[in-house]
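can u do me a favor
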């Protein structure tokens, strides 16, 4: 059923649920109904089935399930809603993340746009992946938009989205790795890609207009500027380096060993 047709037909279901005091969320023919007891669940199921039958429709039993959100997760509109848990302050919260299939699709689309056999300049490579990043992030940020709308309506949100940030940060690393390999026109390899991390780092990719998916998400959600994002990443990278250096020192080893320095020099020479 098309979204337009679903909205036309299912408006009557909306009215019926509302008249019976049932809370629900619907997008086209995908919907959630909320209940506080088993009796209320059975009531909601009965009302829904009766109204759909009246409209000449029926519930897709294979896609319908009853969930206890205190212990069960569920998927809705491309997101996984992870059941209630307690945060460090002892307050109830739940996490929302893109479905695993959505993340796999993101990576697959990037992989298909960065084949090793093509020979393009760096800007052309970036232009191949940026539209994918925009499309995915524009959808993921809808969660933040929903939270903001609820807040404006006076409804306190218990939804936590920080796992989305971690996912996007990880995806950014994957995208950069794919591009580094693509940039190495002759005999690309993961080993060469690793060596080029010193040269083709975050700052380099931002300079050639690659859109960091994490930054785009933070920009749309909270208005973070690209300059602030780049500075934050640089600070975290420096802190990570200092901690790594400290761990080597505690072992009595040098972080910048002669072998590591030689690899860095080789990577720099190969990029010119």
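np, heres the sequence
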């Amino acid at each position: 059923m098309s979204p337009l047709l679903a909205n036309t037909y299912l408006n009557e279901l909306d009215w019926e649920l509302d008249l019976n005091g049932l809370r629900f969320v619907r997008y086209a023919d995908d919907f959630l109904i909320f209940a506080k007891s088993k009796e209320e669940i059975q009531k909601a199921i009965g009302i829904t089935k009766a109204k759909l039958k009246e409209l000449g429709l029926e519930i897709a039993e294979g896609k319908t399930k009853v969930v206890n959100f205190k212990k069960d997760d569920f998927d809705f509109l491309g997101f996984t809603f992870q059941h209630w848990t307690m945060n460090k302050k002892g307050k109830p919260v739940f996490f929302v993340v893109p479905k695993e299939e959505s993340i796999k699709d993101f990576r697959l689309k990037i992989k298909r746009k960065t084949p090793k056999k093509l020979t393009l300049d760096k800007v052309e490579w970036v232009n191949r992946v940026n539209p994918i990043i925009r499309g995915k992030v524009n959808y993921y940020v809808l969660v933040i938009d929903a939270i903001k709308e609820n807040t404006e309506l006076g409804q306190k949100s218990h939804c936590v989205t920080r796992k989305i940030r971690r996912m996007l940060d990880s995806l950014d690393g994957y995208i950069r790795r794919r591009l580094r390999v693509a940039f190495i026109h002759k005999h690309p390899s993961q080993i060469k890609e690793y060596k080029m991390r010193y040269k083709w780092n975050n700052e380099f990719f931002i300079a050639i207009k690659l859109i960091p998916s994490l930054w785009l998400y933070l920009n749309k959600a909270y208005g973070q500027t690209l300059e602030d994002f780049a500075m934050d990443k640089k600070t975290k990278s420096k802190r990570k380096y200092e901690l790594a250096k400290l761990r080597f020192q505690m072992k009595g080893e040098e972080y910048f060993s002669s072998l590591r320095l030689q690899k860095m020099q080789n990577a720099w020479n190969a990029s010119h």
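Residues 226-250 form the longest helix (25 residues). hope that helps!!
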